[in-house]
Amino acid sequence: HVQLVESGGVSVQAGGSLRLSCTVRGYSRSRYCLGWFRQGSGKEREGVAALSYSGATSYAESAKGRFTISRDDAKNTLYLQMNSLKPEDTTMYYCAVDLTHSSCYTWNTATYQHWGQGTQVTVS
After folding, report:
1. In what order do the strands lie in the sheet with 18-25?
2. How far apart are CA 85 and CA 94, in angstroms?
3. Mind listing the pLDDT tens digit for each residue in 54-105?
4. Other C-beta atoms lying within 10 Å of the C-beta of residue 21
């Protein structure tokens, strides 16, 4: 039973930094893609950053140069370090895992089988 639990969402001022965490349990580490997504009210969920089993990373244009995805296998935790935050980064952030592929090749949310409950980030 795969479980993902996000934390770290808070209110910060524009220009500030924040690190989101996602504890992932119950999955095999032999093949996966871990991703961070966000979804505003009335909008489609969009990809932000992804990390494959091999360590390859992918970033949405909005995240490049500002956000960094990483993982700590010993803690079963995925991170999203967000710097230079902007008000438009305000929204719910979700972590997800695709257990059927060894690379992160798409932002299509249907590709990811398991999702966390989300954590709210507010930038003012």
Report:
1. 3-7, 18-25, 77-82, 67-72
2. 17
3. 999 999 999 999 999 999 989 999 999 999 999 999 999 999 999 998 889 8
4. 17
